[in-house]
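JOB MANIFEST
job_type = single_chain_structure
chain_count = 1
residues = 206
[input]
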Amino acid sequence: MDSKTFWNGVAESYAKRPIENMDQHERTVARAASYLTPGARVLEVGCGTGTIAIKLAPHAGDVLATDLSDALIDIARDRAAEAGVKNLRFEVADIAGLPEGQFEAVMAFNVLHLIPDRAAAIRAMADRVAPGGVLVTKTGVLGETWKSRLLRPVIGAMQLIGKAPYVGFFRIRELEAEMEAAGLEIVESETMGGLAGVRFLVARKR
């Protein structure tokens, strides 16, 4: 099952799930917002139901949020309309077809570990960061510890029955090397808690 089909199929149930770690979520939003200015052009990749995009929009000039799932984008548009956010647009796009242009900030939260060609995804996002701008990401680093690696057979079994999408297992040093290879300089990093460690990174365009 391809990723678009999977996420379209689970969109309604995914939208109903509560945020699992609200403290981590709010810290992610606050740290990301600190890199924005009132006139900033922002691109979010893999926006899901638009939760973070809606929270970031008041801190920026214009936000364009994308996801490969049109079902998730429909939900995101409804939520943004309910919230009365005016400077936020949504567009269906996968990593290979991201909107062209230059943005002061490109952001991707809980996405990179779901993309098979992660290095290509990072390059595509880096290409859209304006000089001096930032790429802000948060992603699971499931190859970092033996505890997180225990999830591999569980996820593999779920994938066999169509209950899980592609999930990559990689380490922090691999992720950071791919950022640097894409012409980015890491300026902030933090490993957040949980069995499956999560890495928050901010990388500036050289």
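[summary]
The two ends are 38 Å apart (CA to CA).
The chain is about 40% helix and 25% strand.
exit_status = 0
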